[in-house]
Amino acid sequence: MRIARLLPLCTLAFAAPALAARPPGKSPMTKPAETKPAETKPFDLEAETRAWHQKRISNLTSEDGWLTLVGLHWLKEGDNRFGSAAENDLVFPAGTPERIGTLTLKGNKVTLAVQPGVPLTRAGQPFTGGELRTDADGQPDVLSLGTLRFFAIRRGEHIGIRVKDTEAQARKQFHGIPTWPVSAAWRIEGRFEPATTPRKMSVPTVLGTVEEMSSPGTIVFTVNGQEYRLDPVREPGDDKLFIIFADPTNRTESYGAGRFLYADAPKDGKVVLDFNRAYNPPCAFSPYATCPLPPPQNRLKVRVEAGEKRYGDH
To answer: What are the structural domains, with CATH classification, of the chain?
Structure first.
């Protein structure tokens, strides 16, 4: 009987130190949370390429895509009357008012005087006239008239009016772009050789002009044991590398004037060229685009059988 009475006191004696040693606010049974490694999804080249191309087609066929281009008119210094009537300086598509207004060019400044009664809007609000921003100023002023959208663009020393129509036949009749099968052989890691000093690269255009663009260096890569080089350019506000290239497939299988390709900025001196994402420039779909052309050093001698093929009869 005496031992039984002592047991509770012994139990308390052993428990007391544990209670005293417990950190405030924590249970003695609490274990530190285990950190699980983040799960990484395996890279699926086929699926990633198809998803990229689907997004590319979605942009191309959108209400603001390249398939909506229906006109490009270069302004002369002074007054330029425009509308659907044949006697206008700029003849707009049939179905628009015969006389929409007058665009006046003075130097690099464009102003518009709207014909009374023409329901033009800018950013959803009625527009009765005034100065227009070009795309050289960032976002141009886009004017709407029914299904038509038009705005001023600047290319070198020339300023023109680009016209788009959401009901354009090219958009309605679009039937997809054929491509080569996706191939891991055309996803190539190249070496990036940065330019020692900032340099300008002369890039020809379909307008017959030459545009000076900034080139950060050269990408060196190998196909079938042969070394090739491409000079990318950088567009304002974008750190990606933009590559305008040509190859022998342009003669029959891909677009005759060359193709475009983007690559991520160099990392540890390396650049991944995924030619599965080589795509046709806007000029492959419309005569009203102002595309850059491959500079001489970007005309490859190897057939790049990857990416988009020729669209229709272009």
So the answer is: 66-172 (2.60.200.20), 177-298 (no CATH)
